[in-house]
Amino acid sequence: MTTRVRRRRALAAGLVGGLLLALGAGTAAAAPVIAPGTLGSLTVHKYEQPDVPTGLPNDGSELTDPIPGAEPLNGAQFTLYRVTGIDLTTNAGWVAAEALERTFDPATVRSGDGATVVGDYPIVQQGDPVTTAGEGTAVFANLPIALYLVVETGTPAGFSPAASFMVTVPLTQTDPGTQEQGWDYDVHVYPKNPAFTASKTVTDAVDQDPATEGYQIRYEILGDIPAQGMDRYVVIDTLHESLTYAPDATHSDIIVSVTGGAASVPLDFGVHYAVDLPTPGAGVTTQDVAIDVNTAGLAVIRAAGDASASARVSVSILVTVDSIAEITNVAQVFPSQAAVNGAPTLTPGVESKWGDVTIVKSSSTGTSALGGAEFELFYTTGPSWDGTTVVAPGGPATATAAVQLTIDGETVFPTAGNGRVTLGPLRYSDLSDGGAVTPGDPGYRHYWLREVTPLAGHELLAAPVGFTVIDASTSTSVPTRVEMPIVNVASNAGFTLPFTGGVGTVWFSVAGVLLLAGATLVLARQRSRRRRVSFA
Question: In which domain of life is the source organism classified (predicted)?
Answer without folding.
Answer: Bacteria
